[in-house]
Design brief:
Chain B: Keywords: Oxidoreductase. The complex is a heterodimer. Chain A has 4 helices and 7 strands; from the N terminus they run αααβαββββββ. By secondary structure, chain A is an alpha+beta fold. Helices cover about 30% and strands about 30% of the residues of chain B. In chain B, the strands form 5 sheets. In chain B, strands 1, 2, 3, 4, 5, 6 and 19 form a 7-stranded mixed sheet that branches. A 5-stranded parallel sheet of chain B has the order 8-15-9-10-11. In chain B, strands 12-13-14 form a 3-stranded antiparallel sheet, with no helix packed on it. The chains are: A alpha+beta, B alpha/beta. Bound molecules: flavin-adenine dinucleotide and iron/sulfur cluster (SF4) (2 copies). The site of flavin-adenine dinucleotide (FAD) has 37 residues of chain B, from helix 1, strand 4, helix 3, helix 4 and helix 7.
């Protein structure tokens, strides 16, 4: 699926999902990068030592989840837009997903948007909590959206303005 | 006749880095490009680049182009000739014929030449492939990202390599609907992260599919429909698998081939290497071809990436300057560094094809 459709399978993802125990403690990074390509800015971006040093630039990123504080500074630096931060402690029923979003119009905080999965399919609605779009993000804004808790590992994109297109 | 120490042909990432490296060692450089601004392909690339910090990773192509051009333009050792096309190389006396602004013809006699002319797009044969609305991916990118014009409303992208994937993404960013990305190969050729990026937008990627034919609207004569069909593992179309897509644009992105005319004229020994996109010049580790004093760098030396084009440019620039006796004391160290960087970029599984190609080139 990944090499024919671009959509990772459950097995692909299993190697990337932060351990349940860590997820219960607060926001944490999930890096959906599955192919050895010559690239390492995720490592350079993380100032907390959570993304391990690349021995070879073709290495896959490997994360020490205990060092990750969920700051999300790596999200806008990944040219593959493959990095997300998940917070499953947001509320009883909701989690948050922070994702890179390079489309206009940008949503505003408080706006309701469509939630999309990895194939672009609509899976529900969620509220935008934060839009980070400063100099640091450099035209790759980072959107934090509240999603139903059971969709924390499903939602990977949003659509602003609902179905009108 | 104009004289210069090193003529660099092409102001893309390879030519820019070659000029900077040669000037850094102390040589005088004339950089020639047929466009009205420097940057080559970079001027249309709005996405962030891969690589490491040294190769400007996670910076957008457009910004890398600006950074490098600014350095070149302020360097007193580099003279830049824009709107200038090198149309001939005379091997007998090593003179370049340059057409300036489509008006004047200038002859330049350089001591060394670095050819960094890049690559041109391949096309695809199918019925009616010349209808209005059928573009190469580079043309679509130029229209959208340089001139701010969208090519149409509904696009069929042909080719799931990095270019097909990233141009699809850029089309979606411009508000254009990409109906599907097809590729005759059984697997996606581009980076999977690019593929995931467009998949998340709901764009279907269909591998083992190719274009059968295109049809025009009777009134306007412009593209209206595309028929695609499946191919088997020998790339043979399977009748009965046809699908019709209503599109007003077909964007062809099936690969690049080196723009090597100048190298042929110079009499460089050439070899057909499919892994590198077509005919490329044999050369040694210093990027010097079989014609002494003629160097190559970037896509014309083998279609690869901007990151490797930049380092090859650096290598060619350093070596050309050194061969003229210029060395500010750092040559050995810088040359070694560049060779190591190139090796590490190409060392992974996606570099396999490039490694196979390069192995056939050692002269
Ligand atoms: C859509 C797309 C996405 C890409 N994404 C990436 C990426 O993410 N990361 C990455 O590393 N690479 C990427 N690349 C590849 C990268 O752009 C090229 O590998 C790189 O630009 C090659 O550099 P170059 O200097 O060899 O050639 P070019 O950039 O093509 O420059 C060649 C220059 O030579 C000039 N020229 C040619 N012939 C003549 C002549 N006779 N006289 C005068 N001037 C001449 C041209 O005008 C041009 O300016 C991408 C390419 C495309 C098309
Ligand atoms: S979220 Fe912050 S701490 Fe965690 S990996 Fe990214 S940059 Fe490092
Ligand atoms: S920056 Fe992104 S694409 Fe590059 S290695 Fe890290 S996660 Fe993968």
């Amino acid at each position: 699926m990944l090499c024919t459709k671009g959509i990772p399978t459950t097995e692909d993802l299993a190697t990337r999902i932060p351990p349940e125990e860590r997820r219960r403690k607060g926001p944490v990074v999930m890096i959906e990068c599955f192919q050895k390509i010559p690239c390492n800015p995720c490592y350079t971006a993380c100032k907390h030592g959570a993304i391990q040093k690349f021995e070879d630039i073709n290495d896959l990123p490997s994360v020490n989840f205990d060092n990750c504080n969920g700051c999300g500074l790596c999200i806008s630096k990944c040219p593959g837009l493959a990095i997300f931060v998940i917070d499953e402690t947001y509320s009883e029923t909701q989690a948050t997903v922070s994702l890179p979003f390079e489309f206009l119009p940008l949503p505003h905080e408080g706006e309701e948007v469509d939630l999309l999965d990895r194939s672009g399919k609509k899976v529900g609605k969620g509220k935008v909590l934060k839009v980070r779009n400063g100099k640091y993000e450099d035209r790759t804004p980072v959107i934090t959206v509240a999603v139903p808790k059971e969709l924390s590992m499903v939602v990977r994109n949003i659509k602003v303005g609902g179905d009108v297109r | 006749m104009k004289k210069t120490e090193i003529a660099v042909i092409g102001g893309g990432p390879a030519g820019l880095m070659a000029s900077l490296a040669a000037a850094e060692m102390g040589a005088r450089v004339t950089l020639i490009d047929r466009n009205s601004r420097l940057g080559g392909q970079l001027v249309k690339q709005t996405h962030m680049f891969f690589g490491s910090e040294k190769e400007y990773a996670s910076i957008r192509g457009i910004d890398i182009g600006k950074i490098l051009s600014a350095e070149v333009l302020k360097n007193p050792r580099i003279e830049t000739m824009l709107d200038s096309t090198v149309i001939g190389y005379y091997p007998d006396d090593g003179v370049l014929g340059v057409e300036v602004e489509e008006k004047t013809f200038v002859k330049i006699k350089p001591e060394k030449v670095i050819v960094a002319t890049g690559a041109s797009e391949k096309f695809l044969p199918f019925e009616n492939n010349d209808l209005p609305g059928i573009y190469g991916a580079g043309a679509v990118q130029t229209l959208m990202n340089e001139h701010g014009v969208v090519p149409g409303d509904n696009v069929l992208m042909v080719g799931a390599g990095n270019i097909g994937l990233i141009v699809s993404y850029q089309l979606m960013q411009a508000g254009v609907n990409v109906k599907a990305i097809i590729d005759a190969a059984p697997n996606i050729g581009g980076y999977w992260v690019h593929a995931s990026k467009v998949a998340r937008l709901g764009v279907p990627i269909m591998t083992s599919y190719t274009v059968k034919a295109a049809y025009a609207n009777e009134l306007t004569g412009a593209l209206e429909r595309a028929v695609i069909w499946q191919v088997d593992n020998k790339w043979q179309p399977i009748p009965g698998t046809e699908k019709v897509l209503k599109v007003d644009v077909i964007c062809i992105s099936v690969g690049l081939s080196p723009l090597a005319e100048i190298l042929w004229q110079a009499g460089c020994k050439m070899k057909y290497v499919p892994q590198l996109g077509g005919h490329v010049a044999l050369r040694n580790e210093n990027m010097e071809t079989t014609v002494p004093g003629v160097y190559v760098a970037g896509d014309v030396a083998g279609v690869e990436e901007a990151s490797s084009a930049m380092i090859e440019g650096r290598l060619a620039g350093l070596n050309a300057a050194k061969s003229l006796g210029y060395d500010n004391g750092t040559f050995n160290e810088k040359r070694r560094e560049a060779l190591e960087q190139l090796e590490s970029l190409r060392s992974g599984p996606v570099g396999e094809k490039i490694r196979q190609g390069l192995a056939q080139l050692v002269s």
